[in-house]
Specification:
Helix 8 packs across helix 11. Helix 2 (about 50-60) links the parallel strand 2 and strand 3 (about 65-70). The chain is α/β, with parallel strands linked by helices. It has a 7-stranded mixed sheet with strand order 4-3-2-5-6-9-7, sandwiched between helices. The protein is built from 11 helices and 9 strands. The relative contact order is 0.11.
């Protein structure tokens, strides 16, 4: 008796942090939040087995570029979406991908979509913001705690380096939470979908020393601002910025760290 050939399903590769989203209701909810338009230039990071890809193409987006590092998944996706001329697949590492170049090729700002691997989500967000002028918005699935950090305000327990580093370029909207059961295999943590609207220009002119000052300020969270920045910025410089040296860094807004960074521009 003949047996039916089963479709090829590439194995999950743990080193890529793969947890494939499969819940139809969640997929539909994400696609609805993105609301693809015929003029959009969508870019999906880590399409996996193509569940969200299919939703986006069915919704009638303009172009859809997908970035996938797993060669077996690339083979699957090329076969699955071969009939879609609007779909372009890039076998590449998203951390190394040139988003500004793609925006130039597509003649407009990109809309980024992705179930971002937990193990690279923070560096990937930094990489994306490095091309902020090329990106319109980002709809991402992240660990719920990462979304809490992105959305935190000064004084909140989750407020810290990630919040402050991205704040000049983005506004954050926590859309909804997603339980482990929506994925295969289920992760050990809850996830959340977030909308990051990217400003083409930052809300303030970011000092070249901004990153160094923020990193130093949060290298030891329990320290006061004076102690955290000891050896980098003098007490008088902190006071000249109108900041309390005895307060903790997590109580200050992003522009305060930029003011501190600016003191290093003209020693």
């Amino acid at each position: 008796m003949a047996t039916r050939t089963q479709p090829f399903r590439p194995p999950r590769r743990k080193r890529f942090g793969q947890h494939f989203l499969h819940d139809p209701a969640i997929l539909e909810r994400i696609a609805h939040a993105i609301d693809p338009q015929p003029t959009d230039r969508l870019v999906e990071i880590g399409p996996g087995r193509g569940a969200l890809t299919r939703c986006l193409l069915s919704a009638g987006t303009g172009t859809l570029d997908a970035i996938e590092i797993d060669r077996d998944l690339v083979t699957l996706l090329r076969a699955e979406f071969a009939e879609y001329p609007r779909f372009v697949l890039h076998q590449n590492d998203a951390l190394q991908f040139d988003f500004a170049r793609l925006a130039s090729e597509r003649a407009g700002r990109l809309r980024i979509v992705g179930n971002l691997p937990y193990n690279i989500s923070t560096p990937l967000l930094f990489h994306l913001i490095g091309s902020a002028g090329a990106i319109q918005d980002i709809h991402a699935m992240l660990q719920r705690e990462v979304v809490a950090r992105l959305a935190a305000a000064p004084g909140d327990p989750d407020y810290g380096r990630l919040t402050i580093m991205l704040a000049p370029w983005i506004t954050v909207e926590h859309l909804f939470d997603v339980g482990p059961g929506a994925f295969q295999p289920p992760p050990q943590v809850w996830s959340a979908v977030v909308r990051l609207t990217v400003r083409p220009e930052p809300v303030f002119t970011v000092s070249p020393h901004y990153s160094a000052v923020v990193a130093a300020a949060f290298s030891h969270r329990r320290k006061t601002l004076r102690n955290a920045l000891r050896g980098l910025i003098e007490l008088a410089q902190i006071e000249a910025c109108g900041l309390d040296p005895g307060a903790r860094p997590e109580t200050f807004p992003p522009h305060a760290f930029n003011a501190l960074a600016q003191t290093l521009e003209h020693p």
